[in-house]
Amino acid sequence: MPLIEDALAWAKWALGGTFETRGVLKSNGRTLKRFQGHIIGSFRSTGANAWDPFVFEAEDGGLIDVFAGIEVQVEDRGARFRMRAKGRVVEVVWAPAPADGLADADAATRRAVFLERYVERFDNKDGMGAKAFIAKTLLRR
Length: 141
Hints:
With 141 residues, the protein is an alpha+beta fold.
């Protein structure tokens, strides 16, 4: 599977280093229908505290079913995205079905088809998260 091997190589290179907790998953899209993806790694906390940074660990995690309505963070390149699964944030590369007819397609074509058929993009307005909102509300009293 050269597609998965390429994605794993990219992930090891591009996602090296540490990530702030808030930067691990910033949803900017929602899946439109069910499809399969291949897990190419996950993000792991470097400490016991919720604010400790995260690191990316590349792995061949196998196929995963992605259902409609899941919020994801679509990456800037390729047909890759982040999502919550199995109690962690995972990096996934879209695995086109044979019916998609993309066996010999280049990366740009695969990305265009993925974004057109499977993901609805939206702007993630940086703002107050749920925990901050609850804390602010409780402090008012």
